[in-house]
Amino acid sequence: MTDVLILGGGPAGTVLARRLTALGHGVTLVTCARRPAVEGLSLRAVEGLRRAGCAEAVAAAGRPASRRVDWNGQRTALNGEHLADRSSVDAALLRDAEAGGAVLSRGTVAAVEQGKDGWLAVDAAGAVLGSGRFLVEARGRRAPNAPAREAGPRTLAAGRAYHGPAGEVGSAALSFADGWVWLAALPDGRRLVQLVIDGADSPARADLTAWHEAAVASLPEAAGWVACCTPTGEAEVRDATAIRRPPGVAADRLRIGDAAFSVDPLSGHGVYAAVAWAFAAAAAVNTLAADPTALPAVERFVEDRCTELFAHAADAGNRFYRAEERWRGRPFWRRRAAWPPAPLPPAERGIRRRAVVVNDRIEERPVLVTPALPRGVLAIDGVELWPLLESVEAGPGRGGELAERCSRQLGQPPERVAVALAWLANNGFLPGGATRSGQ
Ligand SMILES: Cc1cc2nc3c(=O)[nH]c(=O)nc-3n(C[C@H](O)[C@H](O)[C@H](O)COP(=O)(O)OP(=O)(O)OC[C@H]3O[C@@H](n4cnc5c(N)ncnc54)[C@H](O)[C@@H]3O)c2cc1C
Asked: Which one of 291, 308, 337 terminates a domain?
């Protein structure tokens, strides 16, 4: 039995596996092959994979390709995205997890059993696929459902793959009266047309390919994208509804990635959120392994982080939906422009006690919050801000003299203290500007 049993080897499960093995935990990762898919990974998502040390996955994601958006009658070129064959990227992620020291077990988990020492994952024949004292559910949208806390309008993505001339690479997102379409062209000639529609407009499964064909024919850009191409299979549908579930954190378990919350593909944040969440989850598991009594702080941290990542992605999607004004009266656009009902209120500037990550452990500390930095800032250039503020208020001084005095008091190099003091001044926390409130 290893320390941690992770179910699901997508971006969330593998990044968590790498982070935990780097912290010295024994990890078993149980996973089965995912359905083939092409997705656009944001630059931030790939940067997250790089930070986690997933060199194989970063290489498999390739170079960013150009991205075009035709929205509300306007054409714009946005930041590029990495056009990823998810089967290749996920296979590379598993190699990265193994290279980091995780024990990889391939199989489909049919049930999870709790024994006296920990958790067992078993397949349909009852064979044990892996075991661990701490259980992480990372099976994405296929994880056994926990009740939804929040859900956006039911959304479906109907995609079909084609093959055409190699060489042209790029992607485009286009809006139309009853949805939007994502077009992708991979260097090897593969192309994808993915139509995103309201759940209420779902065609019968038997009619899906014919429906997709007719929809593509009615959209000149989509038809042009695959004009010289041949379909390589039938159209397939995936649920793409934004859903937030409880992260289910307890002293010996946690849900991460899409198993905890999945975002609307229009936000472009799916893999990024899964990776960001895995980093946060590593601190949560690491903390609970060392000190189970830290559970209340870990719970607060996990809840805040989940709520914030989900709200951020929902807001990004909503801004796109509201920007399309030509079909405001159509059900697809009306429902999405009205969701989420309210964005997170802006944070008020002040000092708050928050659960934060310090040296890979979650601790409650005073942090300085600003509207632009709602999670709060613990330290600048390695200098913790709250003790610095106390040191400032404990005596007189300005400029270099103040930095010298505080640096002596805190045992920190004066140059670093000067940088942190400049941050305090620029953000209105030094006397003369607004200072302490609401700790
Ligand atoms: C239609 C659609 C389009 C999307 N497009 C984009 C996009 O362009 N860009 C983007 O960033 N995000 C996109 N996303 C979101 C992205 O796919 C997810 O957010 C991301 O993959 C979540 O990572 P994860 O590790 O949590 O889950 P997953 O990537 O789903 O990984 C879960 C893993 O668990 C495995 N598994 C499942 N069940 C079992 C089982 N019983 N036993 C063992 N293993 C199991 C799966 O095979 C898989 O390997 C899209 C989502 C949808 C639905």
From this structure: 337
Kindly state whether residues 284 and 142 are assigned to the same domain.
yes
Distance between Cα 274 and ligand 1 center (Å)? 9
44 lines ligand 1 (CB under 6 A): no
Provide the residue range defining the domain that includes 37. 2-64+80-149+243-337
**Atom of ligand 1 lying closest to residue 257 CA:** 26
| Last residue in a domain, options 239, 272, 297 | 239
Q: What is the CATH number for 179? A: 3.30.9.100
Q: Is 42 helix (H, G, I), strand (E, B) or coil?
A: coil
- CA-based angle 61:65:70, to the nearest 5? 130
Regarding the beta carbon of 240 and ligand 1, being less than 6 Å apart is answered yes
> Which is more confident, 179 or 400?
179
Give residue 434's pLDDT band: very low, low, confident or very high (50, 70, 90).
Answer: very low
Q: Are residues 410 and 377 in the same domain?
A: yes
Residues 208-267 have pLDDT tens digits of 999 999 999 999 999 999 999 999 999 999 999 999 999 999 999 999 999 999 999 988
Question: Mean of the per-residue pLDDT values for the chain?
Answer: 93
Kindly state if the Cβ of 197 falls inside 6 Å of ligand 1.
no
Length of the chain: 439
Ligand 1 and 139: CB distance under 6 A: yes
DSSP one-letter string for 246-306: ----BTTEEE-GGGTEE--GGGS-HHHHHHHHHHHHHHHHHHHHH-GGGHHHHHHHHHHHH
Does the predicted TM-score (pTM) go above 0.90?
Answer: yes
Residue holding tokens 């009740």? 147
> Does residue 181 surpass a pLDDT of 60?
yes
Which position has the token pair 């999670």? 375
**Domain match, 182 and 314 both:** no
The pLDDT > 70 percentage for the chain reads 98
| CB of 57 sitting under 6 A from ligand 1 | no
- 127 and 22 in a single domain? The answer is yes
